[in-house]
């Protein structure tokens, strides 16, 4: 049954990849009142009230030319931001393990033979670029701030001064929480906050760093769990906002 | 009445060999190594098995049980599927000597290439617990080399000339993170140990009988230190402007 885990991971990641690509292409039904789908947050340009810099940009090309074929891709705010979470998860140490095993079969499972003869690991292009993971982490932390703001703003469904908890408010706040648990358990963050020190006790600041490092280590020990929970929940949050926005379901008022 | 289970054990040497089947009377609490001893005692006194402590502390009885690298003395028979014979093979990554015994001496040659602990001049020999904790984990290694045998870089690609393997990343991490060690090891870690070949698929962590979090606590922290020195463009620029001592371990 060694194939079960890589198969489940491949199916899970493929399902999420296909759905998120489809959702990003839509460019519509990503917001409802104070709710904003995490696939579209922060919305830099767009038609919703969440857009930070106004309507869709005029510089968005009418068509993309690729191998002599003209592709007409309508503007979607998701295109401007999805590279960041994609890059963060794509270079994440946990996801690297997951997709090296499930997609690249490098190896598929422990002590199981593999179909490839040549191997250079992460010593050459393109995989050597995995080393820029910490830069995606910096962007991901900024995104956590936006998503937390979205989660809190989602409690203003009936106006900026009337705090109402709809089911969507809880969904979006949980989304920010799960993503924060995943992001703040990052291996690169663990290194940056203190892991690079050889001594945790030689100064007052290194003692503080040891405490932060211990906190990150605590989350890091469950990095895989948070990676999957946050991945599922971000997709679910988009589905929820989309269905409410399309009028297929009514947002449940909790209090 | 005692239960009898079938064992298929590799018998042979470098010139060739085959799986031999042995029925073994098993009793509750038996481990695979007990079964090998019973085979030696009853059916195959010439079968070669390396073992020593029978307590999962010497790291001698490593073998591949049902295709998975394990310590035979720590693998209970009641944890293995009862509906099929138990397969026991020698470690695949190392040259076979005979039966279940392999030549693991390559590992000791790699170990010799790692510069030993070199104290900082004038180091104060007083430790705090938080500093001890991190490197203490690496001291649990019993050198069973299960991590080495399961690592696909060594097992499937035979990168022994350029890749030290997880066991020695643990050793390098224990030295590199040591508060008293004064040697700059990052150049060696990047260039000579072949850290970049590791694609962190965590098989080493999965098989470690001492539960050392090899990938999370040794390999990835080393990778991040290598990134600090060689791949982080802002740090590289910063060092160029403000000097090498600004963002690296003192040399």
User: How many separate domains make up the residues of chain A?
Assistant: 1
> Helical content of chain B, roughly?
25-40%
How many separate domains of chain B?
2
Unreliable stretches of chain B (pLDDT < 50, length at least 5) are none
CATH topology of the largest domain in chain B: Fumarate Reductase Iron-sulfur Protein, Chain B, domain 2
Q: What is the CATH C level class of the largest domain in chain B, in words?
A: Mainly Alpha
Low-confidence stretches of chain A: none
SS content category of chain A: mainly alpha
Per DSSP, what share of the residues of chain B sits in E-state strands of 2 or more residues? Answer: 15-25%
Total strand count of chain B, please? 7
What value does the average pLDDT of chain B take?
A: 94
The helix tally of chain A amounts to: 9
Could you describe the 3D structure shown?
The complex is a heterodimer of chains A (255) and B (251). Chain A is mostly helical. Chain A has one domain. In chain A, 53% of the residues lie in helices and 4% in strands. In chain A, the strands form 2 sheets. Chain A has a two-stranded antiparallel ribbon. A two-stranded antiparallel ribbon of chain A has the order 3-4. In chain A, a hairpin with a 2-residue loop joins strand 1 and strand 2. In chain A, helix 6 packs antiparallel against helix 9 and helix 7 runs antiparallel to helix 8. The N and C termini of chain A lie far apart (47 Å). By secondary structure, chain B is of the alpha+beta class. Chain B has 10 helices and 7 strands. The longest helix of chain B has 18 residues. In chain B, 43% of the residues are buried. At the A-B interface, helix 4, helix 7 and helix 8 of A face helix 3, helix 5, helix 8 and helix 9 of B.
